[in-house]
UniProtKB/TrEMBL annotation:
Keywords: Metal-binding, Oxidoreductase, Zinc. It comes from Methylophaga thiooxydans DMS010. Belongs to the zinc-containing alcohol dehydrogenase family. Quinone oxidoreductase subfamily. One of its GO terms (molecular function) is zinc ion binding. The keyword Zinc applies. Residues 11-332 form the Enoyl reductase (ER) domain. NCBIfam families: adh_fam_1 (TIGR02817). It comes from the Bacteria. InterPro entries: ADH-like_C (IPR013149), ADH-like_N (IPR013154), ADH_Zn_typ-1 (IPR014182), ER (IPR020843), GroES-like_sf (IPR011032), Lipid_raft_assoc_Zn_ADH (IPR052585), NAD(P)-bd_dom_sf (IPR036291), Quin_OxRdtase/zeta-crystal_CS (IPR002364). This is Zinc-type alcohol dehydrogenase-like protein.
Length: 338
């Protein structure tokens, strides 16, 4: 095995990635060394890139969605072994996966779906974890008990929304109201199982036109600030709103007081960042997602494969993400190491 790995990293927030090499690290404890087969891009990638201050001496490797093959395992690994095909989203407090090799804790790694290609598998971890945790960990939706309640998903055609619609229907049997504004995104949400699709630019008016009860749960996948007051008005008494995007303004949470409604946050890196006692839940839920994909209970949400990772394809992927008009996920194949 070569003693070096090829990486794509950023030295500033306004430049293309640069290609460079690093020594392949040895692994210990519960870490795995993965030979990357494919990655997918996410909005968090562009946000981390934009947060780079000044000119870095060493390029910063980002990216948190990958599939690959385990080629080394630490002495304490007990869930995953060398040779296993895996998929995972990683840990934002560690280097990312825009590289030929990557080190990751086995407790946040799942066995890759057998029915999917590497690029398809790479599209699924981050969005699946985010959607699963938002619905079942943060808002504590209980299958069977909460069957028939209503979930509103704001910004439902993107990566997380594409999985959240499916999980809400397949596992929780909720009534799902999705928001989308373009013909192709409306069609996409309906294909994934949304019961209603409304335009988020006229959110409250269009929701009222459905003639249904207020949403018991709201998953806001768009920017928090434009929607805060609207969602406080929409949410049902004793309902829960889950946000994923950092707010830039201060908001009046007293708007929710008389409804005894609550706000929760979903940040899928919380468990690995803090090594929470339940960190292995991400291994378990990824395995459940893989089973559902293999059993055709879930649809893979990869919509585009841009080819091998390179300076050009990563730049294009980021441009597509920033446009805010992507459906599902964008994947890339393994980096060319020559």
């Amino acid at each position: 095995m070569s003693q070096e790995m090829t990486c794509l990293g950023f030295q500033s927030n306004d430049t293309k990635p640069v290609k460079f090499t690093l020594p392949i690290p040895a692994v210990s404890g519960r870490d795995l060394l993965i030979k990357i087969d494919a990655i997918a891009v996410n909005p968090v990638d562009t946000k981390v890139k934009s947060g780079i201050q000044g000119q870095l001496e060493s390029p910063k490797v980002i990216g948190w969605d990958a599939s690959g093959t385990v080629i080394a395992a630490g002495d304490d690994c007990e869930l995953i072994k060398v040779g296993d095909k895996v998929f995972y989203a990683g840990d934002i407090s560690r280097p990312g996966c825009y590289a030929s090799h990557h080190v990751v804790d086995e407790r946040i790694v799942g066995f890759a779906p057998k029915s999917l290609s590497a690029v398809q598998a790479a599209a699924m971890p981050l969005t699946s974890i985010t959607a699963w945790e938002a619905l079942f960990s943060r808002m504590r939706i209980h299958p069977n008990i909460d069957k028939g309640k209503t979930l509103l998903i704001v910004g439902a055609a993107g990566g997380v929304g594409s999985i959240a619609i499916q999980l809400a229907k397949q596992i929780a049997e909720l009534n799902v109201v999705a928001t989308a504004s373009r013909d192709e995104s409306i069609t996409w949400c309906r294909e994934l199982g949304a019961d209603h699709v409304i335009n988020h630019y006229q959110l409250n008016t269009e929701y009222a036109s459905l003639g249904i009860n207020p949403p018991d749960y709201i998953l806001c996948l768009g920017d928090t600030d434009p929607y805060f007051e609207q969602l406080a008005e929409l949410i049902a008494p004793q309902g829960l709103i889950c946000y994923v995007a950092t707010s830039q303004k201060n908001h009046n949470i007293d708007l929710l007081k008389t409804k005894s409604a609550g706000i929760v946050w979903e940040f899928m890196f919380t468990r690995p960042m803090y090594e929470t006692a339940d960190i292995t839940a991400q291994h378990q839920l990824l395995n459940r997602i893989a089973e559902m994909l293999d059993d055709d209970m879930l649809r893979c949400t990869m919509q585009q494969n841009l080819g091998p990772m390179s300076e050009e394809t990563i730049t294009l992927a980021h441009q597509m993400l920033v446009s805010g008009k992507t459906l599902g996920k964008i994947s890339l194949e393994a980096i060319d190491t020559e």
